[in-house]
Amino acid sequence: MLYPTLDSLIEKIGNRYLLVNVTAMRAREIAQEAAEQGVRLTEKPVKLAVMDIAEGRYVYSPTEQQK
Question: Would you put residue 14 in left (φ > 0), alpha (ψ -120 to 50) or beta?
Fold first, then answer.
């Protein structure tokens, strides 16, 4: 079984289409931050983004998307 489950992620974000967009946005942020700091990631940015969302370290707010 995969962790985190898709259902648990959808509960946190709202719907699966928005989940894809939020995950991609967070993954790009993670990759950019790592590049700026010169840090080599041990995991892929998408996996780190999904884990951030699942564990509540990254919370989506609708006004954030408008920036």
Answer: left
For the chain, domain boundaries:
6-65
Q: Are 34 and 41 in contact (CB under 8 A)?
A: yes
Whole-angstrom Cα distance, residue 18 to residue 10? 9
What are the start-end ranges of the H helices in 14-65?
16-37, 45-54, 62-65
Q: What is the pTM of this model?
A: 0.85
CA distance 45 to 34: 9
Q: Is 22 helix (H, G, I), strand (E, B) or coil?
A: helix
| Res. 65: pLDDT tops 70 | no
Please tell me whether residue 12 adopts helix, strand or coil conformation. Answer: helix
